[in-house]
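FW: tagging you since you asked about this chain on Friday. Here's the raw sequence from the shared folder, copied in full. Didn't touch anything.
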Amino acid sequence: MCLPFILARGLLWFWPEQSRTNGRDTRVPEALQSKQFELANTPMNSELYLGLDVDKEWIVIAVAEWGRNAPVHDLGAISNDVHALEKLLARLRKRYGPEVMMRACYEAGPCGFGIARRLGQLGVECAVVAPSLTPTRAGDRLKTDKRDARKLARLLRAGELTAIYIPEPTDEAIRDLCRARSDAVDDRRRSRHRLKAFLLRHGYHYQGRTAWSAAHERYLRELVLPHPAMKVILEEYLISVQLASERIARTEAAMSDLLGKWRLEPAVRALMAMKGFQTVAAMIVVSELGALDRFTHPRQLMAYLGLVPSEKSSSDRRRQGSITKCGNAHARWLLVECAQSRVGGTAPPKVSKELSRRQQNQSPQVRLISWKAQNRLHQRYRRLMARRLQRNKVIVAVARELCGFIWELLRTQECYHAPCPSGIN
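HL: got it, structure written out here
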């Protein structure tokens, strides 16, 4: 037999037929059936570690076998849908036996938690890991999907990955609704800024006391502009502001309607008993924090929100910088806003008429924590301002201590310890 024919047969042996789209395999990888993937005497109770590199169209998969020096195999790429993933798991169980224990992981990204939830239903423990906490080699300059999948499988086997919290489907839906309301507020603010910048560029400046009041809107409606094109621009900006305001109103109405059906409603009501928290702010904080029992100390919650100072210390020298700003940026922004409303002005702490109404039907423990927080944060604000610190730094320091009171308050609620219902209400 001639040498070229032998080489051609060898290439065909390791090159299974694939149906390809844009150079990527859309079927379950045929590597599971090739001889290079066969293992002799595989134990029935072995463990497999799957590293998934997930993007919007494809999932590149690598599997690491149990053992410190066990090999890591590339399984190729499949389409990003649960049916292809189910077929892959069936092939793996057929190859290694039905008793094999499989663990999987992939990095958090725009694809969400659907893959992790489906794998959990199929009996595969799946962790969504934080990309910022994934160990990397300083000298590694090569990055491909296969390398990333292999690295995830290897690190999962070594226990070097940090899993993030996967919220319940209902909690995630409420959180998305709260974020949609924040997006509508951002859109309205941008439209207002563009309108004011357009008028200022042409020499029109409102001289009233309060912008975007009823008097300001009448001023904008009655404004006479020299060119028809300018009038069209003004009307379009006013329409965009009005549409964003309507979106905000509809979203807030939906939040109020769904609050009564949410399992964490008692936590929201308890948080509303504190000064500076009404329905919208309380729902945003509770939905962003999720299961509070994963924080065993308030300092962990402060670090999760990125409100702790950064530090670069060595030997006997300690150097602290600005806050880390890592973690949940949405909840951090809202807590800083609530801290400003708490310490605004020099008025002493008090329970207003509105706050007293929100504290009805709350336990004495919740009211005590609310009053304790008012006194503590007000004194903290005055002491820091007396040291002539920058006010923004003082507000952030108050927000950091506010996290501790929120942690103490929400841990008193039984809804965090009740079993979570399946599905979305």
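FW: The chain has three domains: 22-158, 167-259, 264-311+319-425.
HL: agreed, and Strands lie at 20-21, 24-25, 47-54, 58-65, 72-79, 101-107, 125-129, 309-311, 320-323.
FW: great, closing this out.
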